[in-house]
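Entry for the shared binder. Reason: the reviewer on the internal report wants the predicted structure included alongside the sequence.
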Amino acid sequence: MNSPDSTRTETDKDLPLREDIRLLGRILGDTVSQQEGSEVFDVVERIRQNSVRFDRDLDEAARAELEKILAELPRDTMLAVIRSFTYFLHLANIAEDEHHVRRRRAHEMIGSPARDGSLERALARLQAAGVNGEGLRACLEQALISPVLTAHPTEVSRKSILFCQHEVRGLLDERDRLRLTPGELANNEVALRRSVLTLWRTRMVRSTRLAVIDEVKNGISYFDETFFVELPRLYCQFEDQLRQAFPDQNWTLPSFFRVGSWIGGDRDGNPFVTAEVLRESVRRQSIAAFDFYLGEIHALGRELPLSHTLVEVSEALEALAEASPDAAPQRLDEPYRRALTGIYARLAATSSALDQHESPEHAVGVAEAYAAPEEIVADLQVLVDSLLANGAELIAAGRLRSLVRAIDVFGFHLAPIDLRQNSEVHARTVGELLARAQRCAKTSACGDYASLDEAARIALLSEEIASPRPLYSPYIDYSPETLGELAIFFAARELRQRYGAATLPNCIISKTDGVSDLLEVALLLKEAGLLVPGEKPQLALNIIPLFETIDDLQRAPAVMQQLFALPAYRALVAARGDDHEVMLGYSDSNKDGGFLT
């Protein structure tokens, strides 16, 4: 805490945690007493004390007293009691999180061996196992780690609550890291009390269900608070440690760790995810990425006022500065700033063209938009190379290095959005397309798709996937469901062309139970121009089966073997570099067969 006890031993290493929990519990108790009255506080205390006695000592009298208290609680008091214990657990969790940080820092400060879960420990284990730098490099060049943000219809966490909890976390961190004066310590406690009071007076759950775009905003907030800063930092840290562990290798890592998202693309059971929602989700993600880049470029302008009268610069940097629309006399001798001003103007133009979004700070002049994220990285690399060549390695390794990595990771789109839909919806959509095409052609070749057995479906779908003939026509009437499904795939093609192929890389099929489920999606992708048939077909998206029930999981190997044996589908796999992802469900399979199964 604020005044470390020099006699503290390893056995009482959790004492600071207990002190933090006691402090937060006392503040919460005072808040309840002041806001709800002493009678409510007394009830909360009686419940707490009897719960502790029963849990610790199996005291049956305490259990009986606890049951009696709870049975007689008036509604308003019951709500206050529930909120009291809920917020206490929230605050205790915050204290535990801070304690984990405290313990990690303590180990680092005394030079303890690398701990399990750290990059240092992982690299040490690899070296002990005989893995060399070349082998590790080959692995990382093929690796992909992608935690995926998902939304849930019952999600009730409010950003207002999360903000208050963030404030409490920061104040606890301040008490732990800084040597505060008595006055500063008192001010810190007042701020804690203010945050807890705000928490107490803030509605705990949402009064209305979130719209999909609200879920998108919530997902983006995690990038603002964490990923934008922490992912580039993680890459930089990992590269530095790899250079120490394997100094014989040139460690510039590929961006193998990328955050994905289902928010705005997951239609399984959510009819509110439409083509327009998908477009707006991608647009908002893009705006968030560009706003971050523009803010970092603006900050770099403050950090790089280097004058060419005092430092050498590369010819490439001079050319980049000359191409900038910045002609301010006071910056004529500051090529880095002028180059950054030009990059800012091009970034702002790109965001305006892609997202119809105005930059936070106005650009100094008109500039050409960037065509791809790689062009931004190339311009920033000019600054990096010039700094490295002229004795400014420390500057190059700071914000500039992190920004280059961020743009490589997040691109124009921030996070790839996966499309997901239930296989039954795909089947109905394909069935209607086939039926309408049959009706217009006045032929019975397609038959009634829903009545076909699996073998007949596979044969029909394989033939249609290989044919350049489209089934969809804008001059035919379709059901709203079919129009909605087709609109999603048409929007996906448009968004990939606009923001890049990484924007929408995957199409996931919920409740996959057979080969036809994947062929149906292939056919829908063909209708949208995302699959081009031919001797060597081109497939733009990964088709990913999601096996969920126990029966489906058990059949999954046979389904995939049958798929790979189909020449039409095997050609699609070859078009994706002979890589094929399979998702194994855990939620529905757990409901179906139990956790142990």
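Summary line for the report: Residues 419-593 form one domain.
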